[in-house]
Amino acid sequence: MQQLTRVVVRNSALGIGAQFAIKALSFGFTILIVRHLGPEAFGQYAAALAFGGMFIFLADLGLSPYLVREVARMRGEPGGPERVGELYGAVLPLRLVLSLVAAVVVVAAASLTGRPPLMIVAIALGGIGLVIYGVQGTSDAVLAGFERLDLSAAAKLINQLVFVVLGAAALWLGLSYPGLMIAAILGAAVIAYLSWRWVRRLGVAPGRPSARSWRALLGASWPFAIGGLALALSYRFDSVLLNIFRGDAETGYYNAVYNLVFTAAFLPYSLNSALYPSLTRHAASLLDGLPRVCERMIRYLLILGLPIAVSAWVLADRIVPFLFTAAYAAAIPALQIVMIVTPLMFMSDLLGYVAVIQRFERRIARAAIVSTGLNVTLNLVLVPRFGLLAAAVMTVVTEAALVVQYVWILRSLVRQIDWGTALARPLAAALSMGGLLFALHDFPLLISIPSGTLAYLALLLALGVIGTDEFRFVRGLRGTSSLVVSVPTDSQR
To answer: Closest Cα to residue 207, out of 89, 370, 39, 56?
Structure first.
């Protein structure tokens, strides 16, 4: 348990630190892109990314999460490094083949839907990135399986630095968004090389490729593939529809605010990515304590997610012009709606990992099919008529449907969670903070937001949402122990 705790603390702390640096760079550079390109050109750029994002599942077909789980399980067994190397050598060429297929399909889809020539060029460049991702994604999954998320995070930080530097140069040279796609390709090539080298330093050499193993691999990974398809469609399909039926400007408005959701999502991603391989390895010993682990993680994630949603609802008309200029005023209602998805996304990310650890892949696949079917059907009906507001509402509805299904899948575990502590009290604190922000609405954001943050922290303390356990957790990040995975007894609770 102590070793597990140290690993999760290390991965969480380094992951959050690196992801914060990455997201700070990404956020600042995205704001520059949005302002520099304007709604229409940014809409085309966002649509090009959405086309690639919709087909990225085809370049992976669930092999990455499957590889993480298998490497985490194998590496501690006799002959582990050799077996990991054989699996690595089998998955890598399969991923390259799938990436080439995905690149061809995405360009064909863009051509068939009548996208402008410049956008098709950008989408083709993104297809090259998919092939590079085949190498990087496979190597990164091995690093995650070895619980070396610190190396993975370092590679992503370097990637973001390369993209920001080269992307800024592309904008300065007037290359518009195809220049940004080239910068992204070069950044991906750098981290693909680094990830490959770091895997070799772990003592893992790819075994001899064998196409005979591909059928078995795809048979084992298909439930993860359905989850990947669901994510791709849920997060990107609306942008593609907006671009086809409502035009570039509306696509730009929607994606300007939608990107803020993904900026916030780095928090659960870092924590859950650190927990996943560790809990996979220790699943048997933690079986009885898993509800307490989940309760604590849900509480922490909602503490972070709920105030984001409430603040965006109250201050949307101040945030949008502050970040994106008045040219994006039409995006204000979309921001108010779409940020409601933040706490739901935090929840679904954690519950999805827990369901995978318990080997409920088939049930997860069914949940993904239901949510994706709902998303695609209602978006097809509503987006052409109601535009970005319909897209924002469907984003929230889809994520809520996914959370409800995960709760049902994990119902025996969920019944053991104290939802008063995990949900009700953080929600009360966030809504009270929202009342203060409403009263301070006309004050400058640099006054209202810090004031709301301080009030929220005070409310969390007053309501007992955070306390001595959390202070011990913070001390644990400096190298002692953490309560992320510790299991308090009933008397301690």
So the answer is: 89
- Averaging pLDDT over each range in 52-61, 162-171, 227-236, which range is the top one? 162-171
Per-residue pLDDT tens digits for 372-390 = 899 999 999 999 999 999 9
Span 6-22, mean pLDDT?
56
Q: Mean pLDDT for the chain?
A: 84
Residue 490: pLDDT over 50: no
pLDDT of residue 153: 77
CA distance 127 to 119: 12
pLDDT for res 5: 45
Domain boundaries, the chain: 2-206+214-476
Average pLDDT, stretch 437-466? 93
